[in-house]
Specification:
4-stranded antiparallel beta sheet, globular, alpha+beta, 249 residues, 13 strands
Length: 249
């Protein structure tokens, strides 16, 4: 008798239909896993184990391992977490003043000489004597800790003011000069008599000699209009016409 190839009925083996059944189960299981990933949290559940007989109805294997992330070939449709931007409170504190404004000569014969030098001589016959030129100096910025009254006008405590000193001292007599200074900020008041000038010398530079007959008199034209001060001085001999001007800053 010629032997036949293959296994007998009592020998264990897998037939072609058996292979097809296993392969179908594998495909269905992978499809379920990928669908779970695409609609879930993006984590991949992989079943491990050998006992197909004890597998759950919808999965191939029965032990579960959770991977930290899906493989590169899996595209997750999970939306990224929303972010919330927290904005801190708005600072409404006003910035400090930049400093005294720089006056300009709007008309006439005058010059803004900058800051008042420490130890300057502002008396008659001093270095700032000139028949035609009216000099203006910046004395600095301060916040008033008490009301300040000059020329009949009271500037309230807490106001930040910039002080300027105006000086005209001819060598012999007035030559018909006049000037208008524009401070670029409201003029709050001015000291033009000796009493007010003496009382406000504390706003001046250090060791400045302000003494002399320096008040404005009846023949002197002095006026304030908004941001501007105009002067038409008249002085003879050793006399001088001075004023201390307070500007908002």
């Amino acid at each position: 008798m010629t032997p036949t190839l293959g296994r007998g009925r009592d020998e264990r083996g897998v037939t072609l239909p058996g292979y097809a059944l296993v392969l179908g189960l594998v495909v269905l299981g992978l499809g379920a896993i990928i669908q779970s990933i695409s609609t879930g949290s993006g984590q991949l559940l992989v079943e491990t184990g050998n006992d197909i007989g004890e597998a759950r109805a919808d999965q191939i294997f029965y032990e579960t391992t959770v991977l930290d992330g899906a493989p590169a070939w899996v595209t997750s449709t999970t939306a990224p977490p929303s972010t919330t931007t927290t904005t801190g409170p708005t600072d409404t504190t006003a910035p400090p003043p930049a400093g005294p404004p720089t006056p300009t000569v709007a008309a006439g014969d005058g010059t803004f000489a900058g800051g008042m030098p420490d130890g300057a001589d502002i008396t008659a016959n001093g270095p700032y004597d000139d028949d035609e030129i009216v000099f203006l100096f910046s004395e600095g910025m301060t916040t008033l800790d008490a009301d300040l009254t000059v020329g009949g006008t009271t500037i309230p405590a807490g106001t930040t003011v910039c002080s300027y000193y105006l000086h005209y001292s001819p060598t012999s007599s007035s030559a018909g000069t006049s000037v208008t200074f524009d401070f670029g900020a409201p003029v709050l008041g001015a000291a033009t008599n000796d009493a007010d000038l003496d009382a406000t010398d504390v706003f001046g530079a250090t060791d400045v000699d302000y003494r002399g007959s320096r008040r404005m008199e009846g023949g002197d034209g002095f006026s304030i209009s908004g941001n501007q001060v105009s002067l038409t001085p008249w002085a003879v001999g050793n006399n001088q016409d001075d004023a201390r001007i307070f500007v908002a800053c």
